[in-house]
Amino acid sequence: MDKKKPVSEIRRGVIVFLALAVLTAVEYVIGTNEAPTIFLWVIAILKGALVLVYFMHITRLSGSEGGH
């Protein structure tokens, strides 16, 4: 079972990368057209949440890690 964990971590990383790329492309299209800025705010919040959860491991803060 240990062999599947690195593959799933890589797969999750690729999915997050693709999601950020798609959101950036959508953000560009919305930014170059006359659209309400609320859409840009929503995309920025989604991208920030993805970065916090995946790259900054914010979900691990709620767990017990020992003495810290």
In terms of topology, how is this protein built?
Layout lengths: L3 H29 L4 H19 L13
Helix pairs in contact: 1-2
Question: What do these coordinates show?
Answer:
By secondary structure, the chain is mainly alpha-helical. The chain has helices at residues 4-32, 37-55. 71% of the residues lie in helices and 0% in strands. The protein has one domain.
Q: What's the structural domain tally?
A: 1
Helix content: over 70%
**Tertiary shape:** elongated
The Cα radius of gyration reads: 16 Å
Strand tally, please?
Answer: 0
Number of helices: 2
Quick gist of this model?
With 68 residues, this protein is mainly α. 71% of the residues lie in helices and 0% in strands.
Keywords:
71% helix, 68 residues, mainly alpha
